[in-house]
Amino acid sequence: MAEDRGGTAILEVSHVTKRFGGLTALDDVTFRVEEGEIRGLIGPNGAGKSTMFKNIAGFYTPSSGDIRYRGQSIAGRKPHNIAELGVVRTFQETTLFQELCVFDNVLVGCHIRARSNLVAAILGLDRGRQRAARDKVDEVLEFMGLEDRRHQLASELPLGSQRALAIAIALACEPKLLLMDEPFAGMNAEETRHMMNLTRRVRESGISVVLVEHDMKAVMGLCGYLTVLNFGQLLAEGTPEEIRHDDRVIGAYLGGVR
Q1: What is the four-CA torsion angle of 204, 207, 213, 217, rounded to 10 degrees?
Q2: pLDDT tens digits, 198-236
Q3: Is the pLDDT of residue 4 over 90?
Q4: pLDDT in tens, 99-118
Q5: Which terminus of the chain faces fewer neighbouring Cβ atoms within 10 Å, N or C?
């Protein structure tokens, strides 16, 4: 059973199993995420973390079990339908339109959310919606500290700014639950600190966060509660302090990292 810590659940994963032929990638996993938290989903490579994200975001359909967002089942829905409800995922790979500038990258995110007709956008039709979208982009760029890079090509950005831009695109979709897939991978210490601060700002703005990450210093510094997967199963849940001293987690994953 998922532990009920007294808050309101924004996400409930109930007995989710995902099989690919004879391979069981997720095996009867249950956990709940509360409104307003930053939840860490951690575990060794192959534990099922990215598979879980893909099930939540609609890229996979669970073989069995249910996933509920704000009490509503989203298991098996298409990714764009889930995004419209308010569940948006960033990716391990920095998925940007490299040939577009920062502003236009975020503008694309607005059109995805609004399902705007791109032909109408290019021709300058539907001007009211276009004006609102551009105002939204300005707001997101300021929030993410990217306003000074608005005319810079995505391909020219340093890694930390590319990751910030990926989050900005997600924020343009107006999420209430943001799934962040390894946002700190490959970053230096300064970039990691900056991304941690941005993640806290996202949560403070009213967006709940679930992040998959291998940088344990970042995870332990950001997350109030952790869910640990191993071989597709739920291994442990608890506060960072509890997980640091859980012998099962130390043996399976953390080793000497505390």
Answers
A1: 10
A2: 999 999 999 999 999 999 999 999 999 999 999 999 999
A3: no
A4: 999 999 999 878 665 554 55
A5: N
d(CA 78, CA 187): 32
Whether 155 contacts 162, CB under 8 Å: no
Best CA proximity match to 68, nearest among 3, 28, 4, 13: 13
Pure H helices in 86-188: 102-114, 118-123, 127-143, 159-172
Cα distance between residue 219 and residue 163, in whole Å: 17
CB atoms within 10 A of CB 53: 22
| Separation of alpha carbons 187 and 81, rounded Å | 32
Q: How far apart are CA 145 and CA 124, in angstroms?
A: 28
HSE (side-chain half, CA atoms, 13 Å) at 252: 22
How many CB atoms are located within 10 Å of the residue 104 CB?
A: 15
Domains of the chain: 1-86+176-258 (3.40.50.300), 94-174 (no CATH)
Of residues 109 and 22, more confidence is placed in 22
| Closest C-alpha to 114, from 137, 145, 146 | 137
How far is residue 170's CA from residue 88's CA, in Å, rounded to a whole number?
Answer: 6
- Distance, CA of 181 to CA of 151 (rounded, Å): 26
